[in-house]
UniProtKB/TrEMBL annotation:
SUPFAM superfamilies the record matches: SGNH hydrolase
PANTHER family membership: GH22081P-RELATED, PHOSPHOLIPASE B, PLB1
Pfam families for this protein: Lipase_GDSL
Originating organism: Ridgeia piscesae
Alphabetized InterPro entries for the sequence: GDSL, PLB1, SGNH_hydro_sf
Gene Ontology molecular function, alphabetical: phosphatidylcholine lysophospholipase activity; phospholipase A2 activity; retinyl-palmitate esterase activity
A Gene Ontology cellular-component term: brush border membrane
Protein's UniProt name: Uncharacterized protein
Entry's Gene Ontology BP terms: phospholipid metabolic process
Domain of life of the native organism: Eukaryota
Amino acid sequence: MLDDAKTLVAYLKKSDERGDINFAEDWKLTTLLIGGNDLCNYCKKKHVCRSTVIYTDTICPQKSYSAKKYTRNIMQALDLLQKEVPRMLVQVVAMSNIPPLLKIQTGPTCAMLQAYLCPCGLDTRTAKQMRAVHQQYYQALKRLIEDSGRYDTKKDFTVVLQPFMADQTAPKDKNGKYDPSYFSVDCFHPDRKLHQIMASALWNNMACDHGAHYDNPNASCIFSILLQL
């Protein structure tokens, strides 16, 4: 994440040199969306907890995929942007809950790709823990962005948490069956339909007052905003 932030800062400054933007005066909107790779791989090289029981059984995540490490990586990137970039609003989109999405199945190819992309979600032992781990990620991110005040120290920079994917469930068709048309061939990454829903949900949440963001991708503040016009 830190390297990505450095790349973005360098790109913005280069754009300023070319005259494409005014780095000092133009407002900038950055949206940070991190996929579920950490969550999908947290159970690799799993070990037994000794002094601290984190979950209901004895399996603990590898340290590199812990909520603390996950949040620290994001914090380093946000700290750099806050230090280097004036007039910027950063939106951090919360990670979706992976296990419900793995209910999408279309055949052996789909199952094979899911097993490769998200092994922890298909393991019967660790899949049950992924919801708890997902919540640890989300709560740690919420503390960093909303509760700490770390990014509320400048008049021209702030960070907003967008939670509309936090409780995402696998979409169903009119017959109540899980609908694979929202996903790409691997039955894991979103296809155009789901990308459209995610884009609309982000836009709708951008219209919400601070602290009133929805964790439901179908909810909207747009109607209430229009009533006030």
